[in-house]
């Protein structure tokens, strides 16, 4: 019995320093997915597609944090990064226009080539250093800090408010500064008159002929016997000013003042054989079309 | 498998982000590449926290996230104001300080 317990303890201490089989499987599934997300972000022409590929990478990283004994950071990663920050990115992308894709023109000649060479070089450097100096690393797991005093979240909170209190306060100052900066940078005041012309410019444009007529349209009824909006304005020769006929008022049809028009223009119909026949309505229609 | 593999993955992600910053011309995509680099560093920090058996690395990653959030807010506001002035988010168009 004691022997078995010792064996068990030995096996437990062995597994402490190794990565479990489940974690290995998760790594080899999610690692290529994270890499594919990063490469997709790098190579997609459309910026919205880039953002969605990056969401994939960040999700995978969140799962990595969780299986690396950082559950709090894993959830913060998913909530803050993929939830808030990437949606902010998408929001700004939609605001500045989805068509703002990359230009194919290289402004600096050979920039893509040299950028790629540098990326491969940096990656080779990192991988060489890491795989040379960190072979066969055994991890002293976080079972201690994560298992005592209320677990991972409680221990992180305790450290934040004791050992790391000053940096924590500094981040509050940083966040307030960032909020004020964003407001200052993104604010456009109400005095923004871009695209609106002053009255003097409008008058100059009217007399230059950029509008159809220099004066405003004649008001209805101003020059006639009534000032109702239903009666038309008359021109100096007594004819109806067609611009003063209100198209919005259909309760007063134009045919109602056709008689006034005929009187003023001297084309009044006197009693004739065709008074009640088609010709009258024809002349009415002619008036209304004029 | 040892935790070193996480460091290798993180190195690859960081390199991809660096290439993106150099190559892409849309300012918003450049910003996303910077976010990818910050995330790769976070993965390194979390892995080192696990290797060392201490929570300090996780707390440092937490601070990196806070700084990244502030950086995104200010950076996107700058991109918005540049877009309002020049109707473009391409980093090639913001070249007034070039010569």
Please give a structural write-up.
The complex is a heterodimer of chains A (290) and B (99). Chain A is built from eleven helices and no strands. Chain A has helices spanning 2-16, 21-43, 47-67, 71-96, 111-133, 143-147, 151-161, 165-186, 199-207, 258-265, 278-289. The longest helix of chain A has 26 residues, at 71-96. The termini of chain A are far apart. Residues 5-16 and 280-290 of chain A have low confidence and may be disordered. Chain B has 99 residues and is an all-alpha fold. Chain B is elongated and about 50 Å long. Chains A and B meet through α2, α3, α4, α5 and α7 of A and α1, α2 and α3 of B.
Q: How many β-strand stretches of chain A?
A: 0
- Percent strand of chain A equals under 5%
Average pLDDT figure of chain A: 78
How confident is the prediction overall: mean pLDDT of chain B?
89
* Percent of sequence in beta strands of chain B: under 5%
Residue share in helix of chain A: 55-70%
The SSE order of chain B reads HHH
Summary?
The complex is a heterodimer of chains A (290) and B (99). Chain A is mainly alpha-helical.
Write the layout of secondary structure elements.
The complex is a heterodimer of chains A (290) and B (99).
Chain A: H1 2-16, H2 21-43, H3 47-67, H4 71-96, H5 111-133, H6 143-147, H7 151-161, H8 165-186, H9 199-207, H10 258-265, H11 278-289
Chain B: H1 4-23, H2 27-52, H3 56-86
Helix pairs in contact in B: 1-2, 2-3
